[in-house]
Amino acid sequence: MTDYTGASAIVVGGSIGGLTAALLLRDLGFTVDVYERTPTALDGRGSGIVLQPDTTRWFTERSGQDIADLSTATNYVQYLDRSGDVLYREQCTWTYTSWGTFYRALLADFGSEHYHYGEFACGFSQDEHGATVRFVSGRIESADLVVFADGVTSAARQRFDADATLRYAGYIGWRGTVALRDLDPATQAVLHDAITYDVIPHSHITMYPIPGENGLGLDQRLMNYVWYRNVAAGPDLTEMLIDKRGFTGSVSVHPGQVQDRYVAEMKQAAADTLAPAIAEVVTAAETPYLQVLSDVRSTRMAQGRVALIGDAACAARPHAAAGTAKAAADGWALAAALSDAGGDIVAALTKWEPAQLQLSDSLLRRVISMGERSQVTNTWTPGDPDLRFGLYGPGR
User: Is residue 208 within 8 Å of 94, Cβ to Cβ?
Assistant: First the structure.
């Protein structure tokens, strides 16, 4: 293992992927500084994460925190029909967390001394001795290694691949959460121990329980959902993305900011078309928000001493529940390449890049196919093993 004591690294983007990379680089000996564009602690808007091995690996191998203290679990996967009857049910254990719970746990391990809020990185340059990051504030920082983990709207991606731009998938995801305890007892009984789907023509919804802000118990848990609904590109979508302040979102409209008429229409559609238990969750969510589903993949992830990871490199639709797992996998693979490189950072990145590009390509192809099956061809079949979650393939 190569010791990088005395070397420095900058991670741009302080979300889950960036923090995972930062922690791993620090373990190699790097002095690591993380620069996050938002001015305050990040807020996951209550979103849930299906946990996969790469996502949890930091906590199972390196952290003093127990992943069991950060997650919930269910024992079944089930599909309901319009009447509420179970169309399909199989025993299958999945674990989940809330975005905020997981982020705060990673940040607790990294600490706040080298975590910088309110710094938007807008560009970089490099030479044989190091790389320099430029910020909109006028700040300039240099390091031996720079990792961009700045998400789907990455400012750095264009410098890796000028043609890698967001391509709208043709549908949006409505997201929201409801306290499990606030649901009808019969609804709780149906939903609390399963990840639950409802598939209707040209659409599907999935939901599962995640930790609440105050704990993991049934009384604290939230039921988290995402409902995929087709919206054609054009003026109707543009109008939908104008929030209550008059600002237009490019990738999402935040909780409490979606225009009331769209929320009302969505909830009415849920009541009219979804299984009763599922419709109850959707209609009870007080501040649903929407996410624009898009695809993007850079054909490069390494450029000298600068790496591009996670959604910055490849943003894939969430059907495989693999976004955070892919970001973490990029970080673990990068750390392994650096560990074996004898201190040659450029060589390490060159070695690391091909496998991660291949992984992002296979993931993107798979989730596009999954989306087509639910939103276009209506061939999403309950119980089909090809539709299972997994970063490396269905169920893997």
Answer: yes
Other Cβ atoms less than 10 A from the Cβ of 359: the count is: 18
Tokens of 121: 């990185």
Distance CA 225, CA 87 (A): 19
Record the tokens describing residue 123, joined without a space.
């560009």
Say which DSSP state 114 is in: T
Q: What is the pLDDT of residues 8-64, one digit of tens each?
A: 999 999 999 999 999 999 999 999 999 999 998 887 666 899 999 999 999 999 999
* Helix, coil or strand: residue 305: coil
Q: Could you tell me the pTM of the whole model? A: 0.95
Closest CA to 131 of 199, 228, 192, 123: 123
The percentage of the chain sitting over the pLDDT mark of 70, rounded to a whole number, equals 99
Contact 9, 146 (CB under 8 A): yes
Residue with tokens 């196919």: 369
Count the neighbouring beta carbons within 10 Å of the beta carbon of residue 215.
12
Q: In what order do the strands lie in the sheet with 115-116?
A: 115-116, 31-35, 8-12, 145-148, 306-308, 302-303
Distance CA 12, CA 152 (A): 13
The torsion angle over the Cα atoms of residues 315, 361, 133 and 3, rounded to 10 degrees, is 120
Contact by Cβ (8 Å): 396, 192: no
- Express as a percent the part of the chain with pLDDT over 90: 94
